[in-house]
């Protein structure tokens, strides 16, 4: 059993919980996820099973799309609805859609973002949330993120000293959407937090194609679970693709260095190339050789 399973992650479970459950359901230890979602967050969580665990890093690197709700008027320790309130400032003016749209559009492009204290980022070998739970706040290095698209969804709702609205954002790996909610609040002049979040897309994978745990369990009972798995080759379809003949496939199986085809000469050193056999099975990941410009070397051999 191998391939990528598209899970519609439920609220209340960590990504690690989802992997542990899939290990039990699929009866294999070779299971991994491709991008952590907080327990309260739902949506697309690609799960790699069997040999597909070898390609986790190539799926993790993709951009993600989220739909979120922001509440303006108070902030929390965790920057989302699960935390304790740390600052409250009643919204004493009308915030219009045009003002929110201007803020969102101003954030498109490259941004510097500081990871929240309640996150899994490691500092000195310890996760930030471990420091936070011990009541210790430490300096966190900022990271560069990219916002590809940022749009307001629906109306801005004013009332009860708070303001709420929804947005859709497509962003690079490593972006904390709850921190984006706080940044939006700062530009509007109020404390804020993310009150709801769902990941609707991860790389090429869409929420509409995801399965719930209930649907997965039913497919296992019906012996149709294998039909739910996306092949390694299909999962990597966004990578540059090279199809080779059988003789060369044998060399690939043994980890041979190959000549770099002309069409890949402009790739950056280290950029992955998915290598397929004539049966359309992805058998390896190669990359441009770091010192020999006319060659490419294997990064991962996927053949058993």
TrEMBL record:
Its EC number is 5.4.99.25. InterPro entries: PsdUridine_synth_cat_dom_sf, PsdUridine_synth_N, tRNA_psdUridine_synth_TruB, TruB_C. One of its GO terms (biological process) is mRNA pseudouridine synthesis. Residues 23-177 form the Pseudouridine synthase II N-terminal domain. The active site is at 38 (nucleophile). Residues 178-226 form the tRNA pseudouridylate synthase B C-terminal domain. It catalyses: uridine(55) in tRNA = pseudouridine(55) in tRNA. It is an enzyme of class 5 (isomerase). GO terms for molecular function: RNA binding; tRNA pseudouridine(55) synthase activity. Keywords: Isomerase, tRNA processing. It comes from the Bacteria. HAMAP family: TruB_bact. Responsible for synthesis of pseudouridine from uracil-55 in the psi GC loop of transfer RNAs. Belongs to the pseudouridine synthase TruB family. Type 1 subfamily. This is tRNA pseudouridine synthase B.
